[in-house]
UniProtKB/TrEMBL annotation:
Membrane-spanning parts: 15-39, 45-65
Name this polypeptide is given: ABC transporter permease
UniProt entry keywords in alphabetical sequence: Membrane, Transmembrane, Transmembrane helix
Source organism (scientific name): Paenibacillus qinlingensis
Pfam family membership, one: DUF6526
């Protein structure tokens, strides 16, 4: 598997992030155009309104399809990193750490993880700043 680092750690799923998002956007644009044309032509508006509602439903589904698994992954990452911190330090993670910080900290090696956790909580480091501070990167190949 390819070595992961700050530059290449983000992963995109082309079918979801490009194809599905462009199709959903196209559906919204076309449905709004159809509604405008129906209103201007004094034609039947009900089918055009239904088309817009279908487009809105597709966009909502598009957003939910992504958000639910991410929330589940965030919960798993919080538990995994809390356990890792406990194994390394005999203490739970600082409650001040946000889920964004914890997901960024998961890339830190065991050697730098405890100190970076303390620094991130004390300085309220942004997730991107945490990732940039990591010297020995630990890849996460399971998250999309």
């Amino acid at each position: 598997m390819k070595v992961q680092n700050y530059v290449n750690h983000r992963r995109m799923h082309p079918l979801f992030h490009y194809a599905f998002s462009l199709l959903a956007l196209g559906l919204v644009v076309l449905s709004i155009m159809d509604l405008i044309n129906a209103i201007q032509a004094d034609d039947q508006v009900l089918p055009a309104v239904m088309f817009v509602l279908i487009a809105v439903i597709v966009v909502v589904i598009f957003l939910l399809i992504r958000s639910y698994p991410i929330k589940a992954q965030d919960r798993a990452i919080r538990a995994e990193e809390n356990l890792r911190h406990f194994v390394l330090t005999q203490e739970l993670l600082d409650k001040k750490l946000t889920i964004g910080q914890i997901t960024a900290l998961r890339f830190a090696s065991d050697e730098e993880f405890p100190a970076l956790c303390k620094k991130a909580a004390a300085e309220r480091m942004a997730p991107d700043a945490i990732k940039k501070a990591i010297r020995s990167w630990r890849g996460d190949h399971f998250r999309i």
